[in-house]
Amino acid sequence: MRGRKIILGIMLATMVLSSAAAVIFQRQPNVDNQQVLQSRLAELKARLNSAIKAAELGAGGKAISVRLDESSSKPRWVIVVDAAGKKRDVVVDETGSIISTTDHVELPTTRPADTGGSTAAPAPGTSDTGAAEHK
User: Fold this and answer.
1) Tens of pLDDT, residues 42-63
2) Distance of CA 104 to CAs 34, 81, 88, 90, 92, Å?
3) Which of 28, 35, 64, 50 is nearest to 97 (CA)?
4) Where is 92: in which H helix or E strand?
5) Domain spans of the chain, in order of start
6) What is the pLDDT of residue 7?
7) What is the pLDDT of residue 75?
8) What confidence score (pLDDT) does residue 83 get?
9) What is the reported pTM?
10) Could you tell me which of 74, 52, 83 has the C-alpha nearest to residue 65?
11) Residue 24's pLDDT is what?
12) d(Cα 23, Cα 27) in Å, to the nearest integer?
């Protein structure tokens, strides 16, 4: 009789533990956190779209790229606008207000220039094209 009680106790404990494990491992994501993230994402999209529209209106062209200005302590976007073939950088804050507009400057590539195998700089007063002088 005592052996049966032990076996039934073990079976009962196993059932409780397995159902608890099923509940723990099959938990649904926290709905509140998901809703908060979705609403924040929607708010961020709306702000970014507002900033893009402000930049396009301010520079008189079409936005071609957007990047986050990480050098500022406040969130700012740098939006490159193509206005009649001329690229302009428009800096827009989080409220959609234009902070500045400047001519776009292409950043240099990080590849080293082809020096034709030479690593030395040309001597002062000489041509850096490598062409021989004619006498």
Assistant:
1) 888 888 888 888 888 888 889 9
2) 39, 9, 5, 9, 15
3) 50
4) strand 86-93
5) 40-109
6) 72
7) 80
8) 86
9) 0.51
10) 52
11) 65
12) 6
> Residues 6 or more apart from 96 whose CB is under 8 A from it?
47, 50, 51, 53, 54
CB 107 within 8 A of CB 67: no
What are the distances in angstroms from CA 22 to CA 8, 10, 32, 78?
21, 18, 22, 49
Fold type of domain 40-109: Nuclear Transport Factor 2; Chain: A, (3.10.450)
Low-confidence ranges of the chain (pLDDT < 50): 128-135
Dist CA 102 CA 123 (whole Å): 37
Question: H-helix or E-strand containing 58?
Answer: helix 31-59
Q: Assess contact for 20 and 48: CB atoms under 8 A.
A: no
The first and second tokens of residue 95, run together, are 């409220």
